[in-house]
Design brief:
About 30% of the residues lie in helices and about 20% in strands. It has about 325 residues and is α/β, with parallel strands linked by helices. It has one domain: UDP-N-acetylmuramoyl-L-alanine:D-glutamate ligase, CATH 3.40.1190. A nine-stranded mixed β-sheet has the order 4-1-9-10-11-12-13-14-15, with helices on both faces. Strands 3-2-7-8 form a four-stranded mixed β-sheet. The longest helix is centred in the last third of the chain and has 16 residues. The radius of gyration is 19 Å and the shape is globular. It starts with a strand and ends with a strand.
């Protein structure tokens, strides 16, 4: 039986990734930050397909899942539409808006893996104009970083249709007032965020990850190379899920761009199959590591057998 669909909202973008050979903090001076005029020399550059929703879709599709994008492309979106079609995805929830560009992200990474990014939202800000993908029978909706109005409208539509959603606000947290974030988080079945995002959410809403779990939300709290913490709704204890070790050849550098999206792709694939949240986070940990080992957000080797081989070597989660 084929996997039930997961509707993926959020950015579908073209990425320009530049690499600065030194550390950003070697050039930044606190006394000059108020009047910053600085160029980071970046001798290496590449252009990729990216965007949170599209990156998540890639991971799910490679694992054999059923991701369905629910969003918008701009007038320059034809290459992306062709790419999605090559993955044999249901495109009934994807619209093309001829009067705007597809979202564009410009990312600079330094020698320590730190990132600076500029993002043009383009069609993403009008993703709420995309129809509910009637061809799909979704088991879950992922509300990933996108436009303010679109994220609210899509969460409301999921609730109206009785489909649970995962709230994954990411870099979109600053777009929302505290009351808006609070409503989006408390109506979610699941929430996923990093340490930095968790701190911003707590500052804006007063809600900690523990508060959300007590309110009935299953929380996936990621800590980068330190793994993740899972708080299952109704369980008084948290679970510590280890990060999967990186398998890099000597001299190879990790590429962290898109690792969080890969994690979410593995997570959603597992949850859509009915996997319990802690085991789903272990799957997500492996997929995130497999992405970090390769350059690009949608070019790494991934399949269910490859993932399961790595999963078999990952230590079990530890109850805290």
């Amino acid at each position: 039986m084929p996997d039930r669909a997961v509707l993926l909202t959020g950015s579908i973008a073209y990425d320009t990734v530049l690499h600065h050979a030194k550390r950003f903090d070697e050039s930044l001076r606190a006394e000059h930050l108020a009047h910053l005029n600085l160029t980071f020399y970046a001798p290496a550059m590449r252009r990729d397909f990216g965007g949170c929703a599209a990156n998540i879709a890639y991971a799910m599709a490679k694992l054999g899942g059923n991701p369905v994008l629910w969003g918008a492309l701009g007038s320059d979106g034809a290459p992306y539409r062709e790419r999605f079609a090559s993955w044999r995805m249901d495109l009934s929830g994807l619209v093309t808006l001829p009067d705007v560009f597809t979202s564009q992200c410009f990312i600079t990474t330094d020698a320590a893996g730190n990132q600076l990014a500029s993002f043009h939202p383009g069609a993403m800000d009008r993703a709420h104009e995309a129809p509910w993908p009637d061809a799909a029978d979704p088991v879950l909706v992922a509300i990933s970083p996108g436009g303010h109005d679109a994220m609210i409208a899509q969460a409301d539509e999921a609730l109206k249709r009785g489909v649970p959603y995962l709230f994954d606000p990411g870099q979109a947290v600053p777009l929302f007032e505290g009351d808006e974030l609070r409503e989006l988080a408390l109506h979610a079945a699941y929430a996923a965020f990093s340490d930095y995002e968790a701190a911003m959410i707590t500052e804006k809403t007063g809600l900690t990850p523990e508060d959300l779990a007590r309110a009935g939300v299953t929380v996936f709290h990621t800590h980068g190379s330190r793994g993740s913490t899972v708080r299952v709704a109704g369980d008084a204890h948290a679970w510590s899920v280890p990060a999967a070790p990186l398998l890099l050849p000597p001299g190879a550098a990790p590429d962290p761009v898109g690792a969080g999206d890969a994690y979410r792709g593995g997570l959603l694939w597992a949850l859509a199959r009915g996997t319990d949240p802690v085991e789903a986070a272990r799957t997500a940990s492996v997929v995130g590591a497999m992405k970090v080992e390769s350059r690009g957000t949608q070019d790494y080797a991934l399949s269910e057998p490859l993932m399961r081989e790595r999963l078999g070597t990952l230590p079990e989660a530890r109850r805290l």
